[in-house]
Amino acid sequence: MPDAVPAPVADLTAEDVARLRLVSQRLVPHPVLGLPPDPVAAVAHLLAVQAQDLPAAHVAVASRTAARGAAAVRAALDGGALVRTWPMRGTLHLLTAADAGWMTRLLGPRALRAAAKRWLDVGLDDAAFERARAVARERLADGPASRDELGSAWTEAGFEPGTSTTYRLLNGLATRGELVLGPVRGGDQLVVRADAWLPAGARREDEPDEVLLAELAARYVASHGPASVPDLVRWTFLTTGVVRRAVAAAHAAGRLVAVTCEGRTLLGGPDLVDLVADLDAVREATRGVLLTAAFDELVLGYADRTATLAAELEVLVVPGGNGMFKPVVVADGRAVGTWARAGSKRDRLVVTPFAEPFPAGVAAACQEAFSALPLPPPGR
Questions:
Q1: Which keywords belong to this entry (predicted)?
Q2: Which residue among 96, 225, 227, 244 is the one 20 to 30 A from 147 at the CA level?
């Protein structure tokens, strides 16, 4: 059958799922799996990290490395090993340079179709984007440029002036695989040509979509599992039919493991077999309090977040359902509140429990976690 999945290896509780996701996402060190050695490995493991808030993305990635240094994330951007672009859902993500090309090639077309009417409403058709592409290629031929510098070039070429036009053209061309955001200058991430910045063959044009879909499904569930088909649909913005094909292809390649939880089938990578065989080690590794970054994949990366975040509390993390995800306090695998930085130096922690008061010891543990939290490097 096209949507066949492996036979389940375990039946889990929702608490088990929440704790296993912390390990899969590398938010906590497991005695066997450990943590990625550097930001590039951390991003490669997650495949893509939502990053419209670049400082928060620094924290999210650094939190998943052994050294926990956000300066290393900046260095990877400046050196070209990491990039930021719009591969899916019309949303900025951090990806490795090795993955950005093929991910955009695979997922970009659906995002383009979804945005086409909005662009047409402001006069941006395919011909306009082709003109913008030619201007960008000329302006960036000798190296990176800021958004403002590129926007000025587009204005001089006859496009409507303003940051909205610059954003739309940059978004559209990046989603087409023409541009990416690369090195950082001060607080501005510079625009570069994808064909000059990404490694040769990054789009993997010689490989059929089915091969890339299998890799996408396998790597998503390995880094986010246990996760469901609807979770992957939501994450990629692909159709359910396409995602089921991707899952079937990954299963055929031996890269999926299935479990059940409350009657639902969830998927993970091969490591899940050993993890569920020793849940005591998982429970020990996930004991305690951690602070996640804004827009962290632990909450954002799923259609069904209830293992980590109770449905009735989601409005406290995503107020108004407007897509702005607050940083979350996680205790023993469950979201128990939100947090923020305060003070003129942004060095004071303010926590907002979902229920008053926090469980015993959580408030003190929050402060300890805050003191160990990576700080985004200052602009330079």
A1: DNA-binding
A2: 96
* pLDDT tens digit sequence for 213-238: 999 999 999 999 999 999 999 999 99
Residue 360 has pLDDT above 50, yes or no: yes
CATH architecture label of 8-31+206-282: Orthogonal Bundle (1.10)
Assess whether the previous peptide bond of 226 is cis (omega < 30° from 0).
yes
Other Cβ atoms within 10 Å of 313 Cβ, number: 18
The string of DSSP codes covering 325-362 is PPPEEEETTEEEEEEEEESTTS-EEEEEESSSSPPTTH
pLDDT of residue 2: 42
Encoded tokens for 96: 């490795």
**Does residue 43 contact residue 294 with C-beta atoms inside 8 Å?**
no
Q: What is the pLDDT of residues 157-216, one digit of tens each?
A: 999 999 999 999 999 999 999 999 999 988 789 999 999 999 999 999 999 999 999 999
Cα separation, 6 vs 254, whole angstroms: 9
What residues form DSSP beta bridges with 181? 84, 191
Share of the chain above pLDDT 70, in %: 98
Count of beta carbons in the 10 Å neighbourhood of residue 76 = 21
How many helical (H) and strand (E) elements, i.e. helices and strands, does the chain have?
17, 12
* Structure token digits, residue 191: 């625009």
Cis bond before residue 357 (omega within 30° of 0) = yes
- Report the alpha-carbon distance of residue 87 to residue 331 in Å, rounded: 32
Q: Which residues pair with 334 in a beta bridge?
A: 331
- What is the 3-state composition of the chain as percent helix, strand, coil, each rounded to the nearest 5? 45, 20, 35
CB-facing half-sphere around the CA of 354: CA atoms within 13 A: 20
353 token code pair:
């429990």
For residue 297 the two structure tokens come to 């994949």
> What is the C-alpha R_g of the chain?
21
Predicted TM-score (pTM) of this structure: 0.95
Nearest to 202 by CA among 188, 189, 217, 192: 192
Domain 39-197 -> CATH class:
mainly alpha
Q: Where are the domains of the chain?
A: 8-31+206-282, 39-197, 287-371
Sheet containing 334-342: which strands, arranged edge to edge? Answer: 289-291, 328-331, 334-342, 348-353
Model confidence band, residue 379 (pLDDT cutoffs 50, 70, 90): low
